[in-house]
Specification:
Length: 224
């Protein structure tokens, strides 16, 4: 039986928005306050379960994100999650006070719902929730935090990481028009699914890691 007291907090956002940085910081702060917390991260690139995700992102199934439809690509990410749930983090979910997820089912909404026509969005969400939470029995998040960074700024952060070498980007990262469609999907989720938006920029600049982290910590503490 899962421990119903464990809260699953998802940190999501566009590529390079600071998900890994903020997930780690949030877990550290919760631990400092005496809560038992840890992070999980998706895709699980260390595991063979991410093989199809790697094929997709590297362009071996097509060089454009739309070459693999929303439902097929979503299933690649979902099976990776369920394999890691069974093998590793189901036991954390039973033991910990907080699990902080760097991306989750929510990333399918951002990156895959972007591929479906607007009138089909709710039907895609119904399908995804039924598939991941009911059929695959993955836990539903207690809170979803969306790190909102202007895509122009997040692209710069990614650019820094790859030292300007465009060839190192995956098929999502190198398609700016697609990234903007992903942002529209996230806005839909903020407006309709109760995701909490954290504005990570101020006057056209990214806010400090500490500032953003304090907002997220307050949000989680106020809702616990
Ligand atoms: N608030 C911030 N200010 C400045 N730099 C930041 C900030 N947050 C993150 N970074 C830096 O930006 C880069 C991307 O951050 P991070 O890896 O946390 O993002 P991510 O959302 O997990 O990225 P990806 O989508 O590629 O997995 C890193 O080099 C990180 O140190
Ligand atoms: Mg990351």
């Amino acid at each position: 039986m899962a421990n119903n007291n464990c809260r699953l907090i998802v940190i999501d956002g566009l590529d390079g928005s600071g998900k890994a940085t903020q997930s780690k910081l949030l877990a550290e702060r919760l631990n400092e306050k005496g809560f038992k917390s840890r992070t999980i991260s998706f895709p699980d690139y260390e595991s063979d379960s991410s093989a199809l995700v790697k094929m997709y992102l590297s362009g071996r199934l097509g060089s454009n994100p739309d070459d693999v439809n929303a439902y097929a690509a979503s299933s690649f990410y979902a099976v990776d999650r369920v394999a890691s749930y069974i093998n590793t983090w189901r036991k954390y979910y039973e033991e910990y006070d907080y699990i902080i997820a760097d991306r989750y089912t929510t990333s399918n909404i951002i990156h895959q719902m972007a591929k479906v026509p607007e009138p089909e969005r709710q039907s895609y969400i119904d399908w995804l929730f039924d598939f991941e939470y009911n059929r695959l029995e993955l836990p539903a998040p207690d809170m979803v935090v969306f790190l909102d960074v202007d895509p122009v700024i997040s692209q710069k952060l990614i650019f820094g990481r790859y030292q300007g070498d465009e060839s190192k980007k995956d098929i999502h990262e190198r398609d700016f028009a697609y990234l903007m469609r992903c942002r529209d999907s996230a806005v839909y989720a903020i407006e309709n699914l109760g995701w909490v938006r954290i504005d990570c920029t101020c006057n056209g600049e990214i806010r400090s890691i500490e500032d953003i982290g304090s907002d997220i910590f307050s949000l989680v503490a106020d809702n616990s």
